[in-house]
Write a structure and sequence with these properties.
Blueprint (H helix, E strand, L loop, with lengths): L1 H19 L10 H15 L12 H40 L6 E3 L4 E3 L1 H16 L2 H15 L9 H42 L5 H47 L2
């Protein structure tokens, strides 16, 4: 009976993470992938994690399951927020470059994005999967059951504070990632403004300015993309550390 209760609680935390973890939770990925993945991981982890004592009634079990589910959602969101930082950076770059006119659906951020933002989201997700960071996320998730045994969630308030800290840090990261392109676009705009001031009758500078802004921004984005993805991968590790802090704070 204890093993069955442990498996239910483990599945709750696993399910919350898999429902919010980037890539697995993307639009277009069948929902049963997360469910089956959660079942497989539960079957692997439940026999080796500390056993949870069987509750006295069904209501206690439901509350424990809800606590594990919400903790898992917060853990997965800590990583998803980092992807949001990369999406914010691409959106800022698109706005300054004027390339947000053709909008499309971004399946990873569940929002309308320009072509640059959609490309950045795809590359960020591919980098996350191809570099094995999703395995590290699953490892952190498995270790969390030893830091905080199944059914040990006592409060999510501390986890909310940690998640808010990650959100604030991600906003700053998004601006930093976009800063080189924003600075270049600003310099191009200043250059065009000087030309217009010197020759106010030549309206051609307005159209030239738009072309220069797009071309220079795209060139710099292409050159900086490998470094942006490296910074994104490093930020994912920060998100994984935040997952551990969330677990520790939930057990206090």
């Amino acid at each position: 009976m204890d093993l069955l209760v442990t498996a239910i609680l483990v599945f709750g935390r696993l399910g919350g993470v898999l429902l919010t973890l980037p890539g697995i939770s993307a639009k277009g990925v069948p929902k049963h992938v997360a469910v089956l993945g959660g079942v497989a991981l539960t079957a692997t982890l439940a026999p080796v994690v500390p056993l949870a004592a069987a509750p006295g009634n069904l209501g206690t079990l439901i509350l424990g399951m809800a606590g594990e589910l919400f903790l898992g959602i917060m853990m997965g969101s800590a990583v998803a927020v980092v992807f949001g930082a990369f999406g914010l950076a691409s959106e800022l770059m698109e706005q300054e470059m004027g390339s947000r006119i053709p909008l499309g659906i971004d399946p990873f951020m569940f929002s309308n994005q320009g072509p640059l933002g959609t490309l950045a989201s795809w590359l960020a997700t591919l980098s996350f999967l191809l570099t094995g960071l999703h395995y590290e996320a699953i490892k952190v998730l498995g270790d969390s059951f030893h830091y905080l045994p199944p059914g040990g969630v006592t409060s999510l308030t501390g986890g909310g504070v940690v998640l808010m800290e990650v959100v604030g840090w991600a906003l700053i990261l998004g601006v930093r990632l976009a800063a080189p392109v924003l600075a270049l676009v600003w310099m191009v705009n200043v250059f065009v403004a000087v030309l217009v001031k010197l020759a106010p009758n030549m309206n051609v500078f307005f159209s030239i300015g738009m072309v220069m802004t797009n071309l220079s921004g795209l060139m710099l984005f292409g050159l900086a993309l490998p470094y942006l993805l490296m910074a994104h991968a490093a930020a994912i590790h920060e998100g994984l550390d935040a997952m551990t802090r969330l677990v520790l704070s939930a057990g206090r």
